[in-house]
Amino acid sequence: MFSKACEYGIKATIYIAVKSMHQERVSLKEIAEEVDSPVAFTAKILQSLARHGIIDSQKGPTGGFQIQESKIDAITLHQIVHAIDGDNIFNGCGLGLKQCDASKPCPVHDKFVGIRDNLKSMLHNTSLYELATGLDIGLTHLKR
Amino acid sequence: MFSKACEYGIKATIYIAVKSMHQERVSLKEIAEEVDSPVAFTAKILQSLARHGIIDSQKGPTGGFQIQESKIDAITLHQIVHAIDGDNIFNGCGLGLKQCDASKPCPVHDKFVGIRDNLKSMLHNTSLYELATGLDIGLTHLKR
DNA sequence: TCTATTTAAGATAAATTTGTCCGAAATAAG
DNA sequence: CTTATTTCGGACAAATTTATCTTAAATAGA
Ligand code: FES
Ligand code: FES
Question: Which residue windows are coiled coil (chains A, B) (predicted)?
């Protein structure tokens, strides 16, 4: 469904959000540890998220990653997924046709569009805040 | 969403079904042409579908692929996807945790399970027959 | 200023997926 | 039986994704 990069990116962002809500900056090493992801690969993903303006990064001792508390509420899963995996999952044809278009639909178009739109609106309606809160109060987990 | 192999496999199966409904066997070459897929790769996928008992193959001159007409109605998209992509998409965690389990859910579990179940039931409820019919009467297309 | 620490960036490598090639096996037809 | 045609099977190759390594840049603190 999502790429590994996206899975790691989502988990990392949620973890950073939890820490940010407690006014703590967090290091790459800690993130990779808590998220169960390869350190250097995670670094790449976080760099990309930083360039997309979703997270902030700070170099040097006491450096690390954080998210402005005021933004946590406004960031959606959609933004994260879009930043990492692009928009093919949101607009692409389920059978890989170059263009998904109801005027020349593939055999699964009608059935597929519903699922795709479901996913899209779920991601749009899910805020980083609620995901981080669930994790913070121990309702959900990042490893298993 | 689906792998390339799965996309090709679905399109090929639908095309074979259309031909089979007209009592015609169809060659690999024709399938790859009509489905816009690489010939040799398509051969691999069709071999796999044949081993899974979803399609029949026949070697030699006048050989090719076909589907028993009586089965077309009973074959579902789910069977095809499951044969090629396995069941990770149906049961796997959206964030890649080793096990998706409501008793130790990942942050997106509750939201994700709905989407995943939607997809699953859509694939279960979509028969090869209806997809092939749509294509046969020119309502849908395999290339673009 | 110097050092230690942490992220940035680019090159490189490993793993997986996608795609190709070629000889073998089956089989229809002359 | 021989030949032409078609799928089968395994090895091989290319492309993409995932993961690592190394050096540079920033920066906090001694
Ligand atoms: S054309 Fe294939 S999903 Fe729309
Ligand atoms: S645990 Fe992640 S989707 Fe169920």
Answer: none
Q: What domains, with CATH codes, occur in chain A?
A: 4-139 (1.10.10.10)
What digits encode the pLDDT tens for the residues B77-96? 999 999 999 999 999 999 99
Q: How far apart are CA B106 and CA B114, in angstroms?
A: 14
Question: Does pTM top 0.85 for this prediction?
Answer: yes
At position A135, the amino acid (one-letter code) is L
- Nucleic acid strand D within 7 Å of A29 CB: no
Q: What is the pLDDT of residues A69-90, one digit of tens each?
A: 999 999 999 999 999 999 999 9
